[in-house]
From TrEMBL, chain A:
The keyword Transmembrane helix does not apply. GO terms for biological process: tRNA threonylcarbamoyladenosine modification. Keywords: Nucleus, tRNA processing. NCBIfam families: PRK14886.1-1. It comes from Spodoptera litura (Asian cotton leafworm). GO terms for cellular component: cytosol; EKC/KEOPS complex; nucleus. This is EKC/KEOPS complex subunit Tprkb-like. It is found in: Nucleus. Transmembrane segments: none annotated. InterPro entries: CGI121/TPRKB, CGI121/TPRKB_sf. It comes from the Eukaryota.
Automatic annotation (TrEMBL), chain B:
It comes from Spodoptera litura (Asian cotton leafworm). It comes from the Eukaryota. It catalyses: L-seryl-[protein] + ATP = O-phospho-L-seryl-[protein] + ADP + H(+); L-threonyl-[protein] + ATP = O-phospho-L-threonyl-[protein] + ADP + H(+). GO terms for cellular component: cytosol; EKC/KEOPS complex; nucleus. This is non-specific serine/threonine protein kinase. PROSITE patterns: PROTEIN_KINASE_DOM, PROTEIN_KINASE_TYR. The lineage of its organism: Eukaryota, Metazoa, Ecdysozoa, Arthropoda, Hexapoda.
Length: 177, 234
């Protein structure tokens, strides 16, 4: 049985729900990556080492679906837009390569589900790896890479990291972090 | 566009914005929506509103980098002129804390709070963030994370600064002096039964850091003597 994904309703105006699954020991990452890049699979695959809390992905996905609705996306698809929104740089290539997967063996798979469209079942069956509980995400987070990516090194020890990360993500279009 | 408003509970309406509470992305959220000013030209209005939203969000994230707690930002939405941010359900304004909870017996507790206020305002100024509207209503007390009790008179607290709608980046002693003066005036009118309150905050402000502070303090004294506006005479 597949463990329960992280499910959250995005902005009510978009009528979209985000579903996130965590996979480990994935053997066909390149196939997954190619299918996503070519637009065959409607989902995004994220490196779990840069995610501290699934809420971080929710904030990025929420912004992505709103940009799609308002035709203000910076990248080509709403799924690459999620990767772009996760990053605090405005460099698209950098954002996509850092947050997207390559030959990774662990990954987060995100689906945008609407009343008329849910591609998850079909895609999930083609992932060669083990789906694990989203609560295991902490095991995969690399604090070193996270600190680097979000420039957290200068912060006080007891800082609320998720708060700071999402606040930086949503302001990157007009604040240089 | 108005569709989403159905599930929103209005919390407060000010001159610049409306505040709504809702559940957003699974979290208790506060929406600050700036409304259109009909007396302004629509293009100018849009421009001003967008600038103010950016300004407010910028100050909130800058504070975090310097260890001043502020609400987390969940979405900055220029289409709807809204900032979506963390709603701190377990919180009390410093104003209500003083009015409702401080008595003669609990005065020492007030000292820890004035200490925190002084330190935080100093941190803002040290990093050239001028709040612009320092009042005891724009400061919240929350239980420190891990401390689930909502007993304001015991347990560790954190101070959260809110409402950066009038904030700006300012480096001059004049800006910081005026910011302190605004706080003093606010405290005199809200908490006139605690005549030493501002002095306690100012003392904490002064000792927070060794860096030189004389200039700001002397500007503050100057502003206090003349009022917030500079005289344009001569």
């Amino acid at each position: 049985m597949t463990p329960e994904p992280y499910i959250v309703e995005l902005d009510p105006d978009t009528k979209t729900t985000l579903k996130i699954y965590l996979f480990e020991n994935v053997r066909n990452a390149e196939v997954i990556r190619n299918n996503i890049i070519q637009g065959v699979w409607k989902c995004s695959a994220i490196k779990p080492e840069l995610i501290i809390d699934p809420f971080q992905v929710a904030v990025a996905a929420n912004k992505a679906v709103l940009s799609e609705k308002h035709n203000t996306m910076v990248t080509r698809t709403v799924f690459s837009e999620i990767l772009y929104n996760l990053s605090i740089t405005k460099n698209i290539t950098q954002s996509l390569t850092r947050f997207g997967i390559e030959k990774d063996t662990n990954l987060l798979l995100c689906f945008l589900v609407t009343e008329s469209l849910d591609t998850s079942t079909e895609i999930l069956s083609q992932i060669e790896g083990e789906c694990t509980s989203i609560s295991d995400l902490k095991k995969f987070t690399s604090m070193k890479n996270l600190n680097n990516q979000y420039k957290l090194n200068t912060l006080e020890k007891n800082a609320e990291l998720t708060d700071i990360i999402v606040s930086r993500m949503v302001t990157k279009s007009f604040v240089t972090h | 566009m108005e569709e989403g408003l159905k599930n929103l509970k209005i919390l407060k309406q000010g001159a610049e914005a409306k505040l709504y509470i809702c559940n957003y992305l699974g979290k208790p959220t506060l929406i600050k929506e700036r409304f259109k000013k009909k007396y302004r030209h629509p293009d100018l209005d849009e421009h001003i509103t967008k600038d103010r939203i950016k300004n407010e969000a910028r100050s909130i994230v800058r504070c975090k980098a310097f260890g001043v707690r502020t609400p987390a930002l969940y979405l900055v939405d220029f289409h709807r002129s809204r900032i979506y941010m963390e709603h701190l359900e377990k919180s009390i304004t410093v104003k209500d804390f003083i009015i409702k909870h401080v008595t003669d017996d609990t005065k020492p507790r007030l000292n820890t709070v004035t200490e925190m206020i002084g330190q935080n305002v100093r941190k803002l100024h040290e990093n050239n963030i001028i709040h612009g509207d320092l009042t005891t209503s724009n400061m919240l007390l929350i239980p420190k994370s891990g401390n689930e009790e909502q007993d304001w008179l015991s347990g560790d607290l954190d101070l959260v600064m809110i409402d950066f709608g009038l904030s700006y980046i300012g480096t001059s002693a004049e800006d910081k002096g005026v910011d302190l003066y605004v706080l003093e005036r606010a405290i005199i009118s809200t908490h006139n039964d605690y005549p030493d309150l501002f002095k306690a905050i100012l003392d904490a402000y002064k000792k927070q850091c060794k860096k030189k502070i004389e200039e700001t303090i002397s500007k503050f004294e100057e502003v206090r003597a003349r009022g917030r506006k500079r005289t344009m005479v001569g």
